[in-house]
Amino acid sequence: MNSNKSRLAPSPTGALHIGNAFAFVINWALAKQNQWELLFRMEDLDGPRKKLETIQESVDILIWLGLTWDGPVHIQSDDLSQCKHALNELIQQGDAYHCNLTRAEIEEASLAPHTKLALHDSSIRPVDISKHNASYDNAHSNWRFRSSGNSRIIQDTLSGNMKFDVIDDFVIWTKANMPSYQLAVIVDDHHQGITDVVRGKDLLQSAAWQEELYEALGWEAPRWWHLPLIVGPDGKRLAKRHGDSRISSYKTQGVTSERIIGLIANWCGITTTLEPMNLDSFLQNFTLMHLPTTNITFSQKEELWLRD
Ligand code: GLU
Fold it and tell me: Would you give the distance in Å from CA 181 to the centre of its chain?
């Protein structure tokens, strides 16, 4: 094993679907092929507090698929001390200011923005941040990060160089005393020594905001690997409206994990026809060379084959 480290980081919001499985299986294969350490982090800060059973269900589904990882499951909400520490540092540096948020903005801040980013026009930023913050003594406040206002080029291993404008100030902490997704993910990745982040392309833009935080905290950003998305026939990211593509539902209906892996293998360009596959063969045959660069449609034909 070399010193590279990646992580499987599911959010236990609703059950994992075939699009999530696609990303996790590729992340696992990349880790195995490149001798990276692979951690498991349950991102339970997303949305309302999760029961332990819900968290366990997500873990069980990945085990059923045959995925393995190194060390115990890390539950994000177990320790927020590093997040608090980072927040204080940003406040002291004058990189964060307290603000009011609507209830919708507070909710948005906790979610990974798969389709949009919770942003705020930086025109609400106080002129003198340290004076503004000094006039306030309640630690349980909402905080926004003062963005650089520049554009940023994200060097993505799979998508190449992508340019994003970083002109809005985004939420990093809410008065419920919780870090936002953007802050929590970079604090955990940094403290867990994550060098390679593998996830869906719908979070590619988030990498620009996350690099702003890395820079402000003087930390090195990881290497990014943003994967094509699995979309429904309408071209939109797979969701409930496309039908029930939860892995747990397939499992209950008697679909084997070999069929799920077989479909993922076909999407990855490993096979040209649909055939069940075990994870070992997937690992031996997976290569980035055949991975499509554009989104992949989960067709009705494939859905029928799964249940065949
Ligand atoms: N927990 C996030 C999700 O499931 C992933 C966050 C990340 O990989 O940065 O969407």
Answer: 9
